[in-house]
Amino acid sequence: MNRSSTPTSVDGEPILFPRGTHDIRSRAAVFLRDETLQGAVREATTLKDQARRDVLKEAFGEDVDQIRSIAGEIKRHTIDHLDYYIETWIDRAEAAGTRVHLAIDHEEANRIVVEIAREKNAKLCVKSKSMVTEETRLVPQLEAAGIETVETDLGEFIIQIDDDAPSHIVMPMIHKDRKSVARAFVRELGAEYTEEPEQLTRIAREHLREKYRRADVGISGGNFLVAESGSLVLCTNEGNGRFCTSAPPTHIAVVGIEKVVPGFKDLWLLLHLLARSATGQPLTCYSQILTGPRRQEDQDGPTEMHVVLVDAGRTRILADPEFRESLGCIRCGACLNACPVYRKATGHAYGSVYSGPIGAVITPLLQGLDKNPTLPEASSLCGACFEACPVNIDLPRMLVALRRKTRKRRGTLGERIGLWWLRRVFSSVLFYRVAASIQRFALSCLTGGSDRLRAAPGPLSGWTRDRDLILPARRSFRKRWHDRGGASR
Ligand code: SF4
């Protein structure tokens, strides 16, 4: 099976973009027209976002924000001392028998994995879900080397056989429905058509069990690296990670260097936050802690364990104090579910492995802002991502900082007059009140009493091209406050 990154619509039609396009506006325009996709993404993200809030409240009550701050501090401390913790992890992992490799970029990471697989005369690799191998595009490299590589996470498996690309960090096939899965199973696996989720899962399981039995190499990512013990931690919900890391004689994990945490106390808190933030579960069904290959007394496990530590732009981000906190991301996907732009534009619009608010920050940092100049614009700066992030990453601040970097030019005369006027309005109470009254009056004339404007005139028309303009309340907050007896200035 080959793997391209051509996204498809829910009808299975490939969605083609002009070559070299990294403009989120033009990409999003394609997906905004797809009502089925819009409905599927809206439903899934709304459910997960609500589940996250519920389980966090249930577990931590009013202390949620304090817990997020503690988790953020753990990640910030680790990132600030990354050299120390990585060296400690390497020493302990090697002492436990793990063979550690360092890869400066994607090409080197892929080359190392392919070389290990070739050394083992591998014909078949089974692979569990890993964002960093999506980033390096490892599967096509293995396939090019003649090594069949099968994704075993159910979502990733479906994406692979459908020649599609993931569109969410945690729910890779959020953009697909049952019908498209059923069609892919008929076409690629020769299965009978069924839309029943249980039947579809059974078909995939039967197909994959055989692959596990025959695989020479198992490939995984890693959610955390524990410096205290040199362990690799994997969190999965389907048990496929266990098969990939224990059935084949060789296990290769490909992990970003930022995944290290100091010790098990830190891991405990992060595991609880990861599962709750990602899927609304107290813990993922399988949390594996792997410390070296199989020992004599072990009943199963690989005889060789390799970990490829990938830099690929991460040390460049580390060197920039303005953006280094982005390395604290634990890839839970909560910011995607909470983001109004992700919910409308959907994952493939970002044109990158990482979508949503975190993708809008780290894709330009990893690949270069010149290649992705519009990604930092993919946010309303409402702050929902910051509020959702379990490790307190200030994504809005970094989005603004990236936007500032793309604004090298002084702007047109009209833009400069507009900004001068806004500065005046927001720096004077009197100006603000007058401007707010004029705005309310003008908008109510335009809408004739409705609470929203569907097609704004002139320079405002850009705003209503993709959404309605919700009008401000008829009576200002200040006036209502005053009428209810509140103190005024
Ligand atoms: S930035 Fe925060 S919320 Fe978004 S994926 Fe990373 S850890 Fe999760």
The tally of strands reads 12
Distance between the termini: 69 Å
Q: Find the CATH superfamily of the largest domain.
A: NagB/RpiA/CoA transferase-like
The top-level CATH class of the largest domain is Alpha Beta
Mean pLDDT: 90
Find the structural class using helix and strand composition: alpha/beta
**CATH architecture classification name of the largest domain:** 3-Layer(aba) Sandwich
> Largest sheet, described in full?
6 strands, parallel
Set out the fold topology.
Blueprint: H1 24-32, H2 35-60, H3 64-80, H4 82-95, E1 99-103, H5 106-119, E2 124-127, H6 131-136, H7 138-144, E3 148-151, H8 154-161, H9 178-189, H10 197-214, E4 217-220, E5 224-226, E6 231-236, H11 240-246, E7 250-256, E8 260-261, H12 264-279, E9 286-290, E10 304-310, H13 314-318, H14 334-338, H15 340-345, H16 356-367, H17 384-388, H18 395-406, H19 413-426, H20 429-447, E11 452-453, H21 461-464, E12 469-470, H22 477-483
Parallel strand pairs: 1-10, 2-3, 2-4, 4-7, 5-8, 7-10
Antiparallel strand pairs: 5-6, 6-9, 11-12
The chain binds iron/sulfur cluster.
What does it look like?
With 489 residues, the chain is of the alpha/beta class. It has 22 helices and 12 strands. Helix content is 50%, strand content 10%. The strands form 3 sheets. Strands 1-10-7-4-2-3 form a 6-stranded parallel beta sheet, sandwiched between helices. It has a 4-stranded mixed beta sheet with strand order 8-5-6-9. β5 and β6 form a beta hairpin. The site of iron/sulfur cluster has 15 residues, from α14.
